Structures are given as C-alpha cells and as structure tokens.
C-alpha cells in the first residue's frame, strides 16, 4: 500500500472522542511549553497534530448532534444542554481585510480587534460550527496568563468572511468533555 497507507486506513486518526479531547489538551500544554522556550519548530509540529484532533472533535460532536436531531432525541436532552454552554467570544460581519489584519498582527498576537466592537459570547454548538468553517489560512493564537487562546476566522458557507472568534483551548476541551459525557 505504500508509506501513506496509514492515512487511508486511519491508523493515525484519533480512535475515540474522549481520547482525542485528552490528546488535544495535552497538545496545547506541550505547545505552550515549546512556544515559551522559543522552540518554534516543535511548537509548529505539535500544532499540526492538534489541528487533526480539533477537526476530529468538532466533526464527531456535530455529527452526533445532527444524528440526534434527526431521531428527534436532541431537544431537551443533556447533550443539547451541554452544547448551549458559553465557550468563546467573537464578532460577526467582518471583512476579509479585518480577518487578514488579525493574522498580520504576527504569530502569537491573535485577537478580536477592539475596533470591530465588543465581542459577544457564543455557545459550544456555535463555536463548533465556526471551527468547522474556519479559513485554514487565517488563524492565529495568543497566550494570556499561561492560557492558550486560539483565534479563527470562519467563512460563510456560501463563501466570504464571516467573523473572528477566539476561545481558550483548555476550556474548549473541558466543555467538549462534558458534552461527550452526555452521549
């Protein structure tokens, strides 16, 4: 099958949601450590692995919500309650130039710019959708009080800039863990 066979059969993919959440949390800790020590190469390598975990978590939780909605078991469920908790902030109605400016602030300086207005809190369900539709080239982060804050720029499903959002990776993992316990 060749050297990329593991991609085709999923051997490098996360095996389950709880493990993926724990691994993302661990990756964030390693990323913070390596970034803090100036080991940008290793921080970047860890970040790539973390993005695979992030995508897996987002897709699995959203898939579960869609499935339960289709079965009519989502409304008033514990999962619906967990998905409605606040997890992140952001602004909508940004332009591509606004999103690019967030990235041009420099690696490690990502944030929702003050001139865009006061960021509004968003739910875990909303954040999962924002992460799913992020522009993979317009992302950044910052470290606030030893917390890893990830900043994303999602696109409308029809294309074009949608907004800028940020979330604490550790808090995201905690909220996803709670949502997973409701499955």
Describe the fold and architecture.
By secondary structure, the protein is α+β, with helices and mostly antiparallel strands. It is 51% helix and 20% strand. It has 7 helices and 5 strands. Helix 2 packs antiparallel against helix 7. It is globular, with a radius of gyration of 17 Å. The N terminus is likely disordered.
Q: Strand percentage, roughly? A: 15-25%
Main β sheet profile: 5 strands, antiparallel
Question: Which structural class matches the secondary elements?
Answer: alpha+beta
What count of domains describes the coordinates?
Answer: 1
User: Order of strands side by side in the largest beta sheet?
Assistant: 2-1-5-4-3
Fraction of residues in H or I helices: 40-55%
Q: Could you name the key traits of this structure?
A:
disordered N terminus, 51% helix, single chain, 183 residues, alpha+beta
Write the layout of secondary structure elements.
Elements: H1 5-9, H2 17-36, H3 40-71, H4 78-83, E1 86-92, H5 96-104, E2 120-123, H6 124-132, E3 134-144, E4 147-154, E5 163-168, H7 169-181
